Amino acid sequence: MRRFSWFNATSLTFGFAFLYLPILLLIIYSFNASKLVTVWGGFSVKWYAELMRNDAMLDAAWVTLRVAFFSAGLAAVLGTMAALVLVRAGRFRSRTLFSGMVYAPLVMPEVITGLSLLLLFISLNLDRGMLTVTLAHTTFSMCYVAVVVSSRLVSFDRSLEEAALDLGASPLDAFFSVTLPIIAPAVIAGWLLAFTLSLDDLVIASFNTGPGATTLPIKIYSAVRLGVSPEINALSTILICVVSLGVILASLADKRLAKTRNERAG
Amino acid sequence: MDGKWRRFLLIGTPYLWLLLFFLAPFVIVLKIALSDAAISIPPYTPQFDLSAGWPGIVNFFSNLDFENFKWLIDDSLYINSYISSLSIAFFSTLLALLVGFPFAYAMAKAPDNWRPLLLMLVILPFWTSFLIRVYSWIGILKTEGLLNQFLMWLGVINDPMIILNTNTAVYIGIVYSYLPFMILPIYSTLEKMDESLLEAAIDLGCNRFSAFWLVTVPLALPGIIAGCFLVFIPAVGEFVIPDLLGGTETLMIGKTLWNEFFSNRDWPVASAVAIVLLLLLVIPILVFQRLLERQQEAEAR
To answer: Which A residues, 43 through 72, put their C-beta within 8 Å of a C-beta on chain B?
Structure first.
């Protein structure tokens, strides 16, 4: 057993306090009866009730969920294909350009991505709305999916696939019955990442949305700029709880899966 | 479907998608950056008209000017925005390193069975909304906010400090938001470190501090460099943090671009701002990619 010094313990304590205190305070103050965000006026769930009556907010939440769902789905398919190309396709012409285009959106400032896509949609004469936001989100999140899936593909044992081919499976059969089940956790993780990235995006959505397709971050952002409203605390608390629960469940499921696989292998 | 077609489809689908939705937009940005501003919809006069055929192309090159880029140099607002973005990003990165390194070090030194949980706790905030996490600082940093109340209650200060709407708040926001990007790569290099190297250094006469400085830090260097790039690059183009936490003195290029586009509706200048920002970032991104490749090669060996 290594010695865990007081110095290390303090760094961890302060580090986690820094990371979690703001979120925790937000959650606590969402139950504040007072309208003043910094004065405690007793426990109340009235901001949650207020939120449920706020149709504009609920509409925005619905738009955001649909955009996130469709863009994550498309991104999972395109990103997995891109990962297969990166890891498996070997050499082809303009491979450098392809991998550049896969990695570049990861580091591109959002303002540039947002602006450039908007200018594209205008020159294509596409009306701005849900469709354009979905296309924009698909484009940047497929790159995240590609990175997640390709890291799984690198450690993939190709002989499993070759065995399936030797046993008479067509390449497509081999992909769907051997390769895909094995890389599925990475594809699901990629989908989840794409989904949360889309839920979270403010800048790219602001550039590419139109009337009638206001997403939740845009709505939150304008509410925050007008002045802090306690309803936003309630909404944030719900979002934080849902996402945290999702991530915790996903990681538990992954651990479970890995465990059963190890038991089977051992 | 034969193999050749399958391969063509597999490569072609994501390739075409990225060409259309990633590369083509940049060509358009470049085109508009070279256009003249106009009061119309769209608010610019295209200089490059393909439908006009060869005369259009000739016209484009004969009228080619960089007036939007000259404008960026002439008006000190833009240069100041670039410089201040770079300096805010630089100091935030430094601060993130100061906070992140001890954290990552402590994580790597934690008992083995704690580590998955600690790792999970570092990653979890990254999954929750960035906008909400930045917003949560408003209630803390306000003049009548929780931090001031706490410090006054402690008796450290008598009058509330003004933190919100200053650059200090922007630094706090950036360090807070991007801290996991600093911690994770440093942790992954420290975690792989061979403890016996430290023991050897101490046997050879190093004290704990010099062993740390001469062995641990150099071994963690790839992680430190990766972490610094991962914080610095997005911080330069940051928009949400300076807009929500910063004040009138805060000048960052992402916000300038946004204002140019949405408030002034000057699309050509906004495009030129984007092109210059991109060029500024290309160098650190290329350096980062080069380092990453070198690291992967070293690991493959």
So the answer is: none
DSSP structure string for A215-240: -HHHHHHHHHHH---HHHHHHHHHHH
- ipTM score for this prediction: 0.88
d(CA B9, CA B17): 12
Contact B126, B115 (CB under 8 A): no
Phi and psi (nearest 5°) for B41?
-120, 120
Point out the residue among A7, A120, A200 whose CB comes nearest to the CB of B24.
A120
Q: Do B25 and A119 touch (CB under 8 A)?
A: yes
pLDDT digits (tens, 9 = 90+) for A170-223: 888 888 988 899 899 899 989 999 999 999 899 999 999 988 889 999 999 988
Chain-chain contact of B105 with A232 (C-beta, under 8 angstroms): no
pTM listed for this prediction: 0.87
For residue A12, list chain B residues with Cβ-Cβ distance below 8 A: 103, 106-107, 110, 118
B102-145, pLDDT tens digit by residue?
A: 999 999 988 888 898 999 899 888 888 889 899 989 888 988 88
What secondary structure, in 3-state letters, does chain B show? CCHHHHHHHHHHHHHHHHHHHHHHHHHHHHHHHCCEECCCCCCEECCCCHHHHHHHHHHHHHCCCCHHHHHHHHCHHHHHHHHHHHHHHHHHHHHHHHHHHHHHHHHHHCCCCCHHHHHHHHHHHHHCCHHHHHHHHHHHHCCCCHHHHHHHHHCCCCCCCCCCCCHHHHHHHHHHHHHHHHHHHHHHHHHCCCHHHHHHHHHCCCCHHHHHHHHHHHHHHHHHHHHHHHHHHHHHCCCHHHHHHCCCCCCCHHHHHHHHHHCCCCHHHHHHHHHHHHHHHHHHHHHHHHHHHHHHHHHHC
Task: Write the CA distances from A64 to A69, A70, A143, A226, A235, integer angstroms.
Answer: 8, 10, 20, 21, 14
* Distance of alpha carbon A142 from alpha carbon A146, whole angstroms: 6
CB count in 10 Å sphere of residue B161: 16
- What percentage of chain B has pLDDT greater than the value 70? 88
